[in-house]
Design the sequence.
C-alpha cells in the first residue's frame, strides 16, 4: 500500500467525491433546520470555514511529504503515543465507514427498496467496496476517473431541468433569523462535510507532486464545496426551507419534480446515481484509510483478510449502532459533530503546533 502512487488529478477527483459523499444528501436538511431560508448563506460561510481546515491540512501535509501519517505521529509525539493516535484515527475512519454504509442503507430503504432488508443492502454494497479496496488505492483512483464524467453529466442534467422550478421568494427574507443561525448552520456543514477531510492526509503522501499545477487538495475541495452550495441553494429555492427540513432526503423530492416536455417525468431513480456514486467513493476512501492505519500500526502486510474482517465489523456495527433513522440522524447532528471537531480540527492543530515547535528547536 505504501508504494502505491496516484496522480494529482486523480487525487483531486477523489477529494471532490469525498466532499460530496453523503453530505450532498443530508446537508440541505441540517442547514434548513438550523438556518431555514438562509441555509444557502450558511453553506457559503461553511465553505469558508472548510477552506481554513484544508489550509491547516496542507500545512501538516507539507511537514511530512515523504513520510506516512503514522511516521509523522511518531516524530511528533513519540512511537508509543503515536500508535495510540494512529489507532484513534483508525477508529474514527471505521465509524465514518459505518455511518456511510448506514446512510446508503437508509436511503435505499426509504426511497427505492422499502421491502428489502437493510442488512442485504449493506452486505451487497460493502462487498463491492471491499473488492475494490483489496486491489488498492490506484484501483480506486482509476475507477473514480471513469465515473467522474458521468457524475458531472448527472449533475448538469439535474441542475438544467430543475432551474425552471427556482422561486426566489423561497429564500426571502434574507437573514430573518439573524446572523447567529447562519453561523450555527455553517458549523453543521463543517462538521458533517469538511472535518472528515482530515482522513485524506493518510493517502496524501501517495500523490505524485506536480509543483507547477494548482494543489489538487485545494482545487478538489473548491469544486466539491461549490457543488454542495449549489445543491443547498437549489433545494431551498425550489421546495422551500420548511419542506426541506421536514423530509429525510429533499434532493430526492427535488428530482421527482423534473419533467422533460411532459414526456419523461420523475427520473429520481436515474438521479439517485449521483448519491450512490459519491457515497461509494467516500466509503471506499474511509474503509481504505482504516485498513491502512491498522495495517501500518501493527505491521500487517497482507491486508485482504483484514479487509474482510473489518467489513464484517462494519456491517455488524451499522446495524447495532443505529436502531432507527431518527437515532441515526440525531447522532450525526450532535455526537458526530463533536467527535469530528476533535479529530478534524483540535487534534490536527495540536500535532501541527508540536511538530512545528520541534522543527524550529532543531
Sequence:
Amino acid at each position: 500500500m505504501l508504494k502505491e502512487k496516484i496522480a494529482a488529478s486523480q487525487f483531486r477527483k477523489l477529494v471532490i467525491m469525498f466532499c460530496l459523499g453523503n453530505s450532498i444528501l443530508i446537508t440541505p436538511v441540517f442547514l434548513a433546520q438550523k438556518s431555514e431560508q438562509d441555509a444557502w448563506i450558511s453553506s457559503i460561510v461553511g465553505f469558508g470555514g472548510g477552506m481554513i481546515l484544508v489550509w491547516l491540512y496542507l500545512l501538516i501535509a507539507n511537514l511530512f511529504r515523504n513520510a506516512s501519517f503514522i511516521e509523522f505521529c511518531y516524530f511528533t509525539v513519540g512511537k508509543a503515543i503515536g500508535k495510540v493516535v494512529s489507532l484513534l484515527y483508525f477508529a474514527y475512519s471505521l465509524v465514518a465507514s459505518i455511518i456511510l454504509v448506514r446512510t446508503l442503507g437508509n436511503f435505499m430503504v426509504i426511497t427505492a427498496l422499502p421491502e428489502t432488508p437493510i442488512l442485504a443492502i449493506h452486505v451487497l454494497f460493502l462487498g463491492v467496496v471491499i473488492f475494490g479496496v483489496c486491489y488498492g488505492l490506484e484501483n480506486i483512483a482509476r475507477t473514480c476517473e471513469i465515473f467522474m464524467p458521468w457524475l458531472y453529466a448527472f449533475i448538469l442534467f439535474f441542475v438544467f431541468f430543475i432551474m425552471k422550478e427556482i422561486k426566489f421568494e423561497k429564500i426571502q427574507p434574507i437573514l430573518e433569523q439573524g446572523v447567529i443561525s447562519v453561523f450555527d448552520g455553517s458549523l453543521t456543514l463543517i462538521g458533517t462535510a469538511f472535518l472528515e477531510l482530515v482522513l485524506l492526509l493518510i493517502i496524501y503522501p501517495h500523490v505524485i507532486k506536480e509543483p507547477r499545477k494548482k494543489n489538487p487538495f485545494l482545487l478538489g475541495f473548491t469544486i466539491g464545496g461549490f457543488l454542495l452550495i449549489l445543491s443547498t441553494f437549489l433545494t431551498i429555492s425550489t421546495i422551500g426551507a420548511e419542506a426541506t427540513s421536514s423530509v429525510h432526503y429533499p434532493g430526492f423530492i427535488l428530482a421527482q419534480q423534473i419533467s422533460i416536455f411532459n414526456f419523461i417525468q420523475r427520473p429520481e431513480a436515474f438521479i439517485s446515481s449521483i448519491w450512490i456514486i459519491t457515497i461509494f467513493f467516500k466509503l471506499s476512501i474511509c474503509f481504505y484509510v482504516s485498513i491502512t492505519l491498522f495495517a501500518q500500526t501493527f505491521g500487517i502486510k497482507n491486508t485482504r483478510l483484514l479487509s474482510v474482517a473489518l467489513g464484517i465489523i462494519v456491517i455488524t456495527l451499522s446495524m447495532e449502532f443505529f436502531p432507527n433513522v431518527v437515532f441515526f440522524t440525531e447522532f450525526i447532528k450532535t455526537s458526530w459533530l463533536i467527535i469530528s471537531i476533535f479529530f478534524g480540527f483540535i487534534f490536527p492543530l495540536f500535532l501541527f503546533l508540536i511538530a512545528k515547535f520541534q522543527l524550529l528547536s532543531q
About this structure: Strands lie at 259-260, 264-265. The radius of gyration is 20 Å. The first strand starts at residue 259 and ends at 260.
